[in-house]
Amino acid sequence: MIEVICNDRLGKKVRVKCNPDDTVGDLKKLIAAQTGTKPEKIVLKKWYNVYKDHITLADYEIHDGMNLELYYR
Amino acid sequence: MSGDGGDIALSIDETNKLRISLGLKPLQVDGDVASGGGEPKERDADAEAEENYTEYRSKEKAQLERTAALDRIARSRNKRLLNAKLAGATLASDTLPDEGGAGADVDDPLAWVKRSRVRQHELAERRRKEQEEMDRQAEEQAKKEYVVSGVRVGHRAEDLVEAGEAILVLKDSTIEENEAEGDELVSNIMTEKERLARKADLAKKKPGYNPFETAADAGAGASRGILSQYDEEIDGVEKDSFVIGAGGRVAVEEERERRRDAAERARLGVGLTGRKEDLQYGKTGEIRDYMTKEEDEAAQTEATFKKTKKKSKKDRKARTRDEVDEGTGNDAVGDVDMAPPSGPVDSFAFSNATQDTSGTNFVDDEDLQAALARQRRLAARKRAREQAVAAPEDIARMIKREEEGGDTGESATTWAVDGDAEMGVVKDEDNEEGDEADPLVLSDTTEFVRNLPSVSVFQERQIAAERRRRAAELAVSARPGGAGGDVDMPAKEEEDEAIEEMDVDGRGRGGSADASDEDGDVGDVAARARMRKGGWTEAAEDGEIETKGSVLERIEEGGGREGTPDEDELAGIVEEPLVGSGLGAALTYLNSRGMLEKPTPELEERENLLRKRLQWAEDQKKKDARRKMEDLWRKEARKREEAKKKKGGGGGQQSYWEEEERAREEAMIERQRARELEDKFKDYKPVVNIEYTNEFGIKMDEKEAFKYLSHRFHGKGSGKQKIEKRLLKIQDKLKEEAASSSAPIGAVQKLQEATKRMGQPHIVLQVGNRGVAPVLPPVSGPSDPSKSGAAALSKPKKRKGDDPSGTGKKAKKG
């Protein structure tokens, strides 16, 4: 289990527990459940990398305690 | 859900619940991994790696073995194949294929030698047989008829003999050439040699013409013609050739004979395209302007060469061919027409028709030749009709007659004389004076004098009167044979028509202007001009003639309108034109009387400007109207097009093109419009006249205006004193102006005068209700005018008009 921190820098900072083999889409669903936004409205970024839904966190090398940027489209 | 520092976070359980609700597998918590077997998994991995490695090694080994085996197999197969090639009979065994036991005596050299000897014998026998066969065939060939007889060989027979042996092949030629010349045999080597020789010849750059060449130098060139170096260029390169006779024989001697013959003929000029010209002529002979009687006669008898262009060409061709065929010695003279002259034998008094033209080559300018021939013929016919006149006196008489006849003058006769007329002083019988001895003198001076406006207006009037009278006579009399000059006009005309094409239209125009001989003067000028120019009149003279004609006509018209007798005209009295006919007439009348002032230059300038402006405005209006129309058309066209497109549906690319086209068009129109706008004000010259007036409405000059404006602008005027001064000045000026405006009546002056005369500062205009005429006593002695005037102005005693220069007083005074 890893814990990822997603911050939109507008007042929402979410700590999400997830598996490394979860996809980004799953992560988005979890985030959506915690923040109350629709998952399809969420964009996850790290610098200029926009994470795609169908790729797992392990593949993106997202580790425990990493910060992701949370945007809304 | 808890938030530490604003974080939103879920516990593991909550997350698992959520995950289940989302359809995801539960979280793998670290504790589970530790209990489940994180380490064995790792160990497994190591073992697996080991296994994998061994497996890989074994696989590799097997692969190596396999490739080695394959290699071995291939090598052995290769070896086998190579060995298979070596199998079979060897060289030794090859010599005895028929003997079955090949391997038996392979190793026996003696046997081999024996066998090879036998073989050699056999081969020799076979070769001999073949040779015999070939010989036999050759003999048969020789027995057959000789095939090449009648074929042309493109070399000199001697050369061939010299060359000894030459291989002749059919010449490489085009189909056309082959059809024209037939087969030709050439030797490639010899052709090449000839070509080289010619090249070397050209490279030598021999001078074409050696003036110092003697017959000895020339050697064989004794038979060379004039400028023979061009013979090749004219006739093409001469080809030596002979024909193989029957049985393959060639008559060398005959051939040589033939060639010599041809050379001889060429020397004589037969068969050449050009004709040989003899450059010998009588250089020292005297050149005369006309022939003597004897010469003339001789010429008449001998020379009547008439040939038309068409005929001569054909004739000559045919004749030359004939001459060549017959070998007549008359070759050099190619141009002489030996046929007897057709038509009347004429005497060519002053045409050069009698000239011997046989030696002259006119052919290079056939048009000129034809024109001259025609001219000559016409002139000859004319002369024949009028009887031959050979003497210069006759020529002069002729000219005179022509002059009389005015425009009936024959250019055909005059053109021939042109040279003589200028310098010769020729006797003449003058018809008008009836003086036989009076010579006709033609010189530069007389020509000049004659070309001066010799016909005065007075004379012209006379002429016009005469002309009218004659015309009336003609109209009355049905017989057209009245007076000499104008009667033979129509008779001559048909002849004139024939010559008309040679003559320029100057005469024709002159002829149309006048109908009878009193215009002879006009025609005279034309005729003389023609003579001077050598028969071909220029248009410049026509202008002059025409103006004269128009003067005549004008005078005639004037006479007709007024209906006055000719005597009046002669007296030079001109009746006043009628004013009633129109404004123009009135204006001219006034002008002639000097009643209208000539406009001053300024006025003219102003009017000019005004006219220009009006013109400009009009132009603009026109342009605007046109532009509007164009716009309208364009709009309509556009509408129509769009409608059509809507109907048609419109293809993508095409509509795009159309759109593009339209855009371009519009841009162009826009540009044009801009240019027009620019042009519009090019001719715009407004009259700008800036006037400044002050607060009293008085005109100011530039300086004052500047001051005024400046004061207004700065809001700071002059001081009080200055203003007063200025006002005073203005007042004075006004007064002055008033005085000057009343100057024509001079009331003020008169008043002053009156007061001065009466010695009183006032005058009595009215007493009570009655008007009193002022009594003007005789002028008293000179008194101080300024004093009295001032007094009169300052102290009016009696009742008087308030205004010193007022109208009321004026009226009373008057």
UniProtKB/TrEMBL annotation, chain A:
<dbReference type="GO" id="GO:0005634">
    <property type="term" value="C:nucleus"/>
</dbReference>
<dbReference type="GO" id="GO:0031386">
    <property type="term" value="F:protein tag activity"/>
</dbReference>
<feature type="domain" description="Ubiquitin-like">
    <location>
        <begin position="2"/>
        <end position="73"/>
    </location>
</feature>
<dbReference type="GO" id="GO:0005737">
    <property type="term" value="C:cytoplasm"/>
</dbReference>
<protein>
    <recommendedName>
        <fullName>Ubiquitin-like modifier HUB1</fullName>
    </recommendedName>
</protein>
<keyword id="KW-0833">Ubl conjugation pathway</keyword>
<dbReference type="GO" id="GO:0043687">
    <property type="term" value="P:post-translational protein modification"/>
</dbReference>
<dbReference type="InterPro" id="IPR039732">
    <property type="entry name" value="Hub1/Ubl5"/>
</dbReference>
<dbReference type="GO" id="GO:0000753">
    <property type="term" value="P:cell morphogenesis involved in conjugation with cellular fusion"/>
</dbReference>
<dbReference type="InterPro" id="IPR029071">
    <property type="entry name" value="Ubiquitin-like_domsf"/>
</dbReference>
<dbReference type="Pfam" id="PF00240">
    <property type="entry name" value="ubiquitin"/>
</dbReference>
<dbReference type="GO" id="GO:0033120">
    <property type="term" value="P:positive regulation of RNA splicing"/>
</dbReference>
<dbReference type="InterPro" id="IPR000626">
    <property type="entry name" value="Ubiquitin-like_dom"/>
</dbReference>
<dbReference type="GO" id="GO:0045292">
    <property type="term" value="P:mRNA cis splicing, via spliceosome"/>
</dbReference>
Automatic annotation (TrEMBL), chain B:
<feature type="region of interest" description="Disordered">
    <location>
        <begin position="292"/>
        <end position="362"/>
    </location>
</feature>
<protein>
    <recommendedName>
        <fullName>SART-1 protein</fullName>
    </recommendedName>
</protein>
<feature type="compositionally biased region" description="Basic and acidic residues">
    <location>
        <begin position="119"/>
        <end position="143"/>
    </location>
</feature>
<feature type="compositionally biased region" description="Acidic residues">
    <location>
        <begin position="429"/>
        <end position="438"/>
    </location>
</feature>
<feature type="compositionally biased region" description="Polar residues">
    <location>
        <begin position="349"/>
        <end position="361"/>
    </location>
</feature>
<keyword id="KW-0508">mRNA splicing</keyword>
<feature type="region of interest" description="Disordered">
    <location>
        <begin position="772"/>
        <end position="814"/>
    </location>
</feature>
<feature type="region of interest" description="Disordered">
    <location>
        <begin position="29"/>
        <end position="60"/>
    </location>
</feature>
<feature type="region of interest" description="Disordered">
    <location>
        <begin position="468"/>
        <end position="524"/>
    </location>
</feature>
<feature type="region of interest" description="Disordered">
    <location>
        <begin position="618"/>
        <end position="669"/>
    </location>
</feature>
<feature type="compositionally biased region" description="Basic residues">
    <location>
        <begin position="306"/>
        <end position="319"/>
    </location>
</feature>
<dbReference type="InterPro" id="IPR045347">
    <property type="entry name" value="HIND"/>
</dbReference>
<comment type="similarity">
    <text>Belongs to the SNU66/SART1 family.</text>
</comment>
<feature type="region of interest" description="Disordered">
    <location>
        <begin position="89"/>
        <end position="143"/>
    </location>
</feature>
<feature type="compositionally biased region" description="Acidic residues">
    <location>
        <begin position="493"/>
        <end position="503"/>
    </location>
</feature>
<dbReference type="GO" id="GO:0000481">
    <property type="term" value="P:maturation of 5S rRNA"/>
</dbReference>
<feature type="region of interest" description="Disordered">
    <location>
        <begin position="383"/>
        <end position="442"/>
    </location>
</feature>
<dbReference type="Pfam" id="PF19252">
    <property type="entry name" value="HIND"/>
</dbReference>
<dbReference type="GO" id="GO:0045292">
    <property type="term" value="P:mRNA cis splicing, via spliceosome"/>
</dbReference>
<dbReference type="Pfam" id="PF03343">
    <property type="entry name" value="SART-1"/>
</dbReference>
<feature type="compositionally biased region" description="Basic and acidic residues">
    <location>
        <begin position="394"/>
        <end position="403"/>
    </location>
</feature>
<feature type="compositionally biased region" description="Basic and acidic residues">
    <location>
        <begin position="618"/>
        <end position="644"/>
    </location>
</feature>
